[in-house]
Automatic annotation (TrEMBL):
NCBIfam families: TRAP_S1. This is ABC transporter substrate-binding protein. The lineage of its organism: Bacteria, Pseudomonadati, Pseudomonadota, Gammaproteobacteria, Oceanospirillales. Na(+) binds at F212. GO terms for molecular function: metal ion binding. InterPro entries: DctP_fam, SBP_TakP-like, TRAP_DctP_sf. It comes from Vreelandella populi. The keyword Cell membrane does not apply. GO terms for biological process: transmembrane transport.
């Protein structure tokens, strides 16, 4: 009798163990994820960092197979592929989708407005995260912002640009709808090129100057080999945000606990990316100097003029699209509210001190 009982208990334990293993195997999701960034652009490291964290933190329920940009499909196709569920996820820069909805532009970057810490504050505490989810949600996707870089290098090329007067008649590679509008009002002409094409465009004189990303990314892309001049600061992109688009069906198939782990990995990657980018940019700036590149900085008067034009462009865009207005309304509200503490803590404040913002009242009139 004892032998039979022992056998029954052993059989039961084995059945439970098998069932548990089977459930685990069935529960584990296998995701395919790609990016807008190929291996030769350093920004792909932000995507890879998040994927590695997710696979460590949530590997019992989801494993992500990451493929660099261009290995599965062109970077321009990752949005549609994620929306339709052809792939489960893709790393991106939201500004690439501004043709679908102009609200994607400020979700990616701002002209002469936010710096990296502003984006961090706004995403984490002032309603930014919810706006990413709302806008991407219109396209059947969850969105987790997980990367921030501070202001971009500026314009690099063979033609010296030392002031906004030098922008007159120049053909410049520039990404972003709002950025292009500002440039045009300053007398320049926007040329749209993929990041991987900027090097050759400078080398061959197709453009007078171009921009792509931060100094760390730009140096590794070889810009010091073809550019003699560098116009800074990068007012056109005062900071940038990157993240992951996740097909909503794939997201909903995860447990709440696993979803939270993906969010935790995103927040950790966001903090890492800002420090990583600044470290790389500092080292690369010295490398550009050592390579003999001449650095010209826009004057305070020029930057004030750029701010005036930027404010006009932001209000113009807000009155053209309610989503665009909603995002900028939230951003400017943050800057106004944060000024209460920010401006009395100078010089140890963590954000830009600004006294010339786009008109919140004019944007509200367009909501």
């Amino acid at each position: 009798m004892k032998t039979i009982a022992r056998f029954s208990l052993t059989t039961l334990a084995a059945s439970i163990t098998f069932a548990a293993l089977t459930t685990t195997a069935q529960a584990q999701e296998q995701w395919t994820m790609t990016s807008t960034w190929p291996d030769n652009l350093d920004l792909v490291q932000i995507d890879q960092h998040w994927v590695e964290l997710v696979n460590k933190l949530a590997g019992d329920e989801v494993q992500i197979n990451f493929r660099s940009g261009g290995t599965l499909m062109p970077g321009t196709e990752v949005f549609d592929a994620t929306e339709t569920g052809s792939i489960e996820a893709a790393g991106d820069w939201p500004g690439y989708w501004a043709g679908l909805n102009p609200a994607f532009s400020p979700l990616a970057t701002t002209t002469s407005l936010f710096n990296g810490v502003d984006y961090l504050n706004w995403i984490q505490q002032w309603g930014g995260r919810e706006l990413y989810e709302e806008i991407y949600g219109q396209y059947n996707m969850m969105y987790l912002p997980y990367g921030i870089t501070n202001n971009e290098s500026g314009f690099m090329g063979r033609t010296p640009i030392a002031s906004i007067a030098d922008l007159e008649g120049k053909r410049l590679r520039l990404s972003g709808r709002d950025q292009g509008r500002v440039l045009e009002q300053l007398g320049g002409s926007q040329v749209t090129l993929a990041g991987g094409e900027v090097y050759q465009a400078i080398e061959r004189g197709v453009i007078d100057a171009g921009e792509f990303s931060t100094p760390g990314v730009d140096f590794k892309a070889g810009f010091a080999e073809v550019a003699d001049n560098w116009a800074t600061p990068g007012w056109h992109q005062s900071a940038s945000v990157f993240g992951v688009m996740i097909n909503m069906d794939a997201w909903n198939a995860l447990s709440e606990e696993t979803q939270e782990k993906l969010r935790i990995a995103a927040d950790a990657t966001m903090a890492w990316s800002l420090a990583w980018s600044e470290y790389e940019s500092n080292a690369a700036t010295q490398q550009f100097i050592d390579a003999g590149v001449t650095i010209n900085q826009f004057s305070e008067e020029d930057l004030a003029r750029i701010q005036d034009v930027t404010n006009q462009v932001i209000v113009q865009g807000a009155c053209e699209n309610p989503d665009h207005a909603k995002v900028y309304h939230s951003m400017i509200t943050y800057l106004q509210e944060y000024a209460t503490w920010r401006d009395v803590s100078v010089p140890f404040n963590m954000s830009r001190t600004m006294n010339n913002l786009p008109s919140l009242e004019e944007i509200e009139a367009c909501l």
